[in-house]
Design goal:
The protein is built from twelve helices and 13 strands. It is α/β, with parallel strands linked by helices.
């Protein structure tokens, strides 16, 4: 192999890459923010109809237009302002690839969505990262102060892994004051109090990225979308995007899922209710610092015992995410809000461990 190839591979491998959670068989899976409140039967039904409507010998011509019409109806945004991708990850990746460079400065939070951070490392894009406070909140004044030296603003709202969101007026004011490109990642938006999708109608520099992975429980189908001005959307879909970014089964399943929005909204409300139950329960233990969340997960600091808590839960077949150090908090763990039964098993295990 040529020396330049070896050097390139060595340089790329040193970056690391996005760390996926460990797969533990037959566990209560509360480590990846998946939506188990959406019933399995829902998936079976839409996949069954999707198979009947599909001929996978053919390329998926035309049906993406129908999917975009359904998304348009769902978010109440014109079809011309909506694009799709192979998960929101792929959309973010393409935006970074074509709109950022080594000379581009991106203003974001620390931490933020891990995939986005790793992609910026891959492309050598510098980050201006504003750290969270000890109570896992962001200072809007710090963002405004640093916005003058940034070209792109990226915020996941709610933030992953903290679950934090600015108030809607705060975030709207920040976006309006920013002259560069603004990317708001609303992967967990259906579990929060607001969306900024409609703001794209009046802000040409704003892109709101969303997904069906969390809200509709379709993480395995990899179906993301974005809302942006017409010119950006047209260029993204016709020039930047792959000719066939979504499989036929994904397209047809997405169309069917978007016909069942009531089911999704009911699931989201249950998750919000369960989120409060878990948060309130964890706050009763002095061993934890628990942070309020607007997403379908909760971050808490178990301090010096976080590895013991993580291992003890794993021994009982319960998987959560071990994060470790975030700012001044050294023992952070993140738990997904699952079904009532899953959440009760988690809380019972915590009670037995600490009670």
């Amino acid at each position: 192999m040529s020396s330049w190839i070896d050097k390139k591979i060595e340089k790329l491998s040193s970056i690391g890459g996005y760390t996926k959670p460990e797969l533990i068989s037959d566990s209560v899976k509360l480590d990846s923010n998946e939506n188990y409140v959406i019933p399995k039967q829902f998936q079976n039904d839409i996949l069954s109809i999707a198979r009947k409507n599909s001929d996978i010998r053919e390329y998926p011509l035309g049906r993406i237009d129908e999917l975009i019409k359904m998304i348009s109806k769902f978010v109440k945004i014109p079809v011309s302002m909506i694009g799709v991708g192979n998960g929101s990850d792929q959309i973010l990746d393409l935006i970074l690839l074509h709109f950022a460079s080594k000379k581009t400065k991106i203003l974001t939070s620390k931490p933020t969505f891990g995939f986005f951070e790793e992609r910026c490392k891959l492309y050598s894009i510098p980050l201006i990262a504003i750290p969270f406070s000890d109570d896992m909140k962001l200072d809007i004044a710090e963002f405004k102060k640093n916005s003058k030296s940034a070209d792109i603003l990226y915020l996941d709202s709610p933030n992953n892994p903290t679950g934090f969101t600015f108030t809607k007026p705060q975030l709207q004011k920040l976006i309006k004051s920013f002259s560069g490109l603004v990317i708001i990642d609303e992967a967990y938006g259906e579990f929060a109090n607001y969306s900024l999708a409609s703001m794209t109608k009046s802000c040409d520099n704003l892109i709101v990225v969303r997904t069906l992975s969390k809200s509709f429980g379709l993480a395995g189908l990899r179906l993301g979308y974005f809302v942006a001005n017409k010119k950006f959307t047209e260029t993204f879909m016709n020039v930047l995007q792959y000719p066939y970014p979504l499989s036929t089964i994904t397209i047809e399943s997405g169309i069917m899922a978007l016909q069942k929005t009531d089911l999704m909204y009911n699931a989201a409300e249950l998750i919000k209710s369960e989120r409060k139950r878990i948060t309130d329960s964890l706050k009763k233990f002095d061993a934890f610092d628990v942070f309020d969340s607007q997403a379908n997960f909760i971050l808490f600091d178990a301090h010096g015992s976080y590895k013991r808590v993580y291992s003890a839960l794993a021994e009982q077949g319960i998987s959560i995410r071990k994060l470790g150090k975030i700012g001044n908090h050294l023992g952070c763990l993140r738990v997904t809000v699952g079904t009532k039964e899953m959440n009760s098993k988690f809380l019972l295990a915590i009670r037995d461990l600490l009670g």
